[in-house]
Amino acid sequence: MRTCLPLRRLLFLGLAAALLALGGCAGLRSALRVQDRSLAAVPAGTYRLDPEHCSVVFSVDHLGFSRPVMRFDRVQATLLWPAGGAAGASLEARVRTDSVDTNVPLLDRELRSPAMLDSARQPFIVLRAHGWQATAPRHGDVSGVLSLGPDRVPLRLQVRFNGYGVDPVTGAPTLGFSATGEFSRSQLGLKAWPGLVGDTVHLRIEAEFVAERAHRHPAS
Predict the structure, then answer these.
(1) Neighbours of 21 (CB within 10 A)
(2) Which of 71, 83, 128, 172 is least surrounded by Cβ atoms within 10 Å, i.e. has the fewest?
(3) Is residue 92 classed exposed, middle or buried when 0-12, 13-18 and 19+ CB atoms within 10 A define those classes?
(4) Which of 134, 117, 137, 114 is nearest to 126 (CA)?
């Protein structure tokens, strides 16, 4: 125990010094919060999804016991923001079906199989959405369609605009959203395991978009 005390004190003193330094740096504090919360602040242009700052997670009922949370790990999306603002904005997102991740390898294989997503023949779930129907200053509904192979299902997203600004780390103009929605998996052609797994898919999305001119193109 005695040999650990100097290390603990050193860590404590280092942390205290760091907090004092941050506390005394008003410029750094202000740089960490640069978002403009007004939709009108977003310039017209094309914005690409930042793959390092997005998540697409979903859950379904399992025998009435739980609603496990799963996710897709690979997503691409383009947001077109016209001069007229959010009301005319449009989005196209492509989700790789083989990137489904339930944290259970056997279940992942089953979901990618022809009985469900059929990832070999249907590599993408595609979302096309447009418009913005304001429900509050930073909240709105967005209507879209999900497609998987030949199947289609309507999707209405409840969206919160988190803000627009220049990312202090990358220097890139960035805007962010949080969204939730629900859809019927059977309408999307995912009809396996009726009675065992619920039909309603509960969806949650967190997404940051970067202005196209500043976008970093990851290797494909």
Answers:
(1) 10
(2) 83
(3) middle
(4) 117
Neighbouring-strand partners of residue 19: none
Tokens of 62: 């399992």
pTM of the predicted model over 0.85: no
Per-residue pLDDT reduced to its tens digit, 43-100: 999 999 999 999 999 999 999 999 999 999 999 999 999 999 999 999 999 999 999 9
Give the CA radius of gyration of the chain: 21
Question: Residue ranges of the chain with pLDDT lower than 70?
Answer: 1-33, 214-220
> Cα separation of 53 and 162, whole Å?
13
For the chain, the 3-state helix, strand and coil shares in percent, each to the nearest 5, are: 25, 45, 30
Rounded-to-integer distance, Cα 115 and Cα 148, Å: 13
CA distance 152 to 141: 19
Q: What is the Cα–Cα distance from 137 to 197, expressed in whole angstroms?
A: 37
Q: How far apart are CA 152 and CA 145, in angstroms?
A: 7
State residue 88 phi and psi, 5-degree precision. -105, 5
